[in-house]
Amino acid sequence: MPDMNDPLLKRIAKAATVSAPRLPDTVLTTSISQRRPQITSRLVFASTALAAALVIGLVGVNVFGKPAITHLDAPLFSMARVDTMLAYGSAMQTGPEPEYLPGPAITNVEGTGKIYQLRRTGNPTEIIQHLAELFNLEGKIDTNYYSDNSNYVFTNGKVPGEPSISLSWRGTGTWDVDFYEQGRLNKSHAFLSDEQLKAKALEVFSKTGFNTQAEDLEIYKDSGRRVIGTLEVDGQKTSLQWEIKWDQRGNLQSVRGHSVEVVERGTFETISEQAAIERIGDNRYTGMVYNPWSGRDWNAILQDKSDDYTVTIDKADHTLMMVWDKKGNAWLTPGYIFQNNQTPYWPMVMSVKDGVIELPKKTPLTY
Questions:
Q1: What is the DSSP letter of 156?
Q2: 65 pLDDT above the threshold of 60
Q3: Element of type H or E holding 349
Q4: Is residue 89 a contact partner of residue 286, using CB atoms and an 8 Å limit?
Q5: What mean pLDDT, rounded, does the chain reach?
Q6: How many CA atoms lie within 13 A of 122 on its CB side?
Q7: Is there a contact between 53 and 20 (Cβ–Cβ < 8 Å)?
Q8: Helix axes 194-207, 7-17, angle to 10 degrees
Q9: Cβ(244)–Cβ(200) under 8 Å?
Q10: Are 122 and 116 in contact (CB under 8 A)?
């Protein structure tokens, strides 16, 4: 059984006693446009000490049973350049790009999909203060820790190994509470049971603005324990995740999350699965998705392929892909993940038609 006198477990227990106020439901509009974005869910802090609950709601505008298409006078946003191996999707290889071929299940039917803005919300210093109070940490924000004024660090500044908080006010407002060094100094504890791990995760996540269900949490058991909650938007899992982690000695190691609200920006036309295959390997059409791994072993892949091998796409899964714009903001766009039995990492591309998003200049990939 875990030692409930452990100071870090006490901090979690203290966090569970902090109550969040009941906020009015997010007002949803039926007008979907650039001027009046529709707020569909909110992950925010209500004040320096209290976290708001997650509110999810969707309103669809339909004409004769079909989604209304949003028409733009200009691109919705300018996408930042992607020049890493992420753009390769499944390939992530050192040899030639394979030829991707559609299997019999791949359709040539166009469709529609929604784009969401992941808008940072709240005040970064108040968010840090809330986290400090939540975990009973003492210290102050060090504005000189980074030269970039979009990064914030909360530290004691005196005691080595004291827990710290970092927050990036770009993208999704990611924050991280780090207990790593202090955990190394504490005595070992037995791991919590799966039920206890999920219960603790739910307690902490809810106090930082993210509400989910125990059955939706994922537990990973390596040298320590990790519990991950994934943000779902319109029934689809995204790459946005909250995590609480214990080290190999059973001590709390870190808690991570985001300060963001999900804003629907419209419904747009998408290309077919077959047409999207042509985008594989083009770094202008890639981003981050939930779990693109096929589970195949790299060694088996390398033994099977030749320099001019082909990959047959067996299935196309609809997904929401996270991309960044040139101003450092994050978005969710419609996309496909292409399943196949030949690569360890499935290809993934945006599916929205050209013109909705201003694409960056096509550049060679870096390795």
A1: -
A2: no
A3: strand 348-350
A4: yes
A5: 79
A6: 34
A7: yes
A8: 50
A9: yes
A10: no
Site of tokens 């999350």? 257
Only one residue has tokens 């030269």, namely 147
Alpha helices by DSSP H, 150-193:
180-185
Q: Bridge partners of 232?
A: 237
* Cα 253 from chain centre: 20
154 closest CA partner among 119, 130, 181:
130
pTM of the model: 0.80
- β-strand partners of 307: none
- Say how far apart CA 296 and CA 98 lie, in whole Å: 17
CA distance 56 to 62: 20
Residue 219's CB is within 10 A of a number of other CB atoms, namely 12
CA–CA dist 278, 97 (Å, integer): 12
Count of other CB atoms within 10 angstroms of residue 44: 20
How far is it, in rounded angstroms, from Cα 97 to Cα 103?
18
| pLDDT one-digit tens code per residue, 245-304 | 999 989 999 999 999 999 999 999 999 999 999 999 888 999 999 987 767 676 766 666
Yes or no: say if 275 and 269 are a contact pair by the CB < 8 Å rule: no
Residue in this structure with the two tokens 């709390």, named with its chain if needed: 252
Q: CA dihedral in degrees (199, 321, 356, 315; nearest 10)? A: -130
Q: From residue 104, how far is each of 115, 312, 313 by CA, in Å?
A: 29, 9, 9
CB 196 within 8 A of CB 1: no
Give the chain's count of helices (H) and strands (E).
Answer: 6, 19
Q: Which of 89, 88, 105 minimizes the C-alpha distance to 315?
A: 105
Q: Can you tell me the distance from the alpha carbon of 162 to that of 135, in angstroms, rounded to the nearest whole number?
A: 12
Strands (E), the chain: 38-43, 55-56, 62-63, 66-67, 99-102, 111-120, 140-141, 151-155, 164-168, 175-178, 218-221, 225-233, 236-246, 252-257, 260-270, 310-313, 315-324, 330-339, 348-350
The conformation of residue 258, written as its DSSP 8-state character, comes to -
- Cα 130 to Cα 128: distance, rounded to the nearest angstrom: 5
Q: Which amino acid is at 154?
A: F
Hey, what are 49's tokens?
Answer: 């000490």
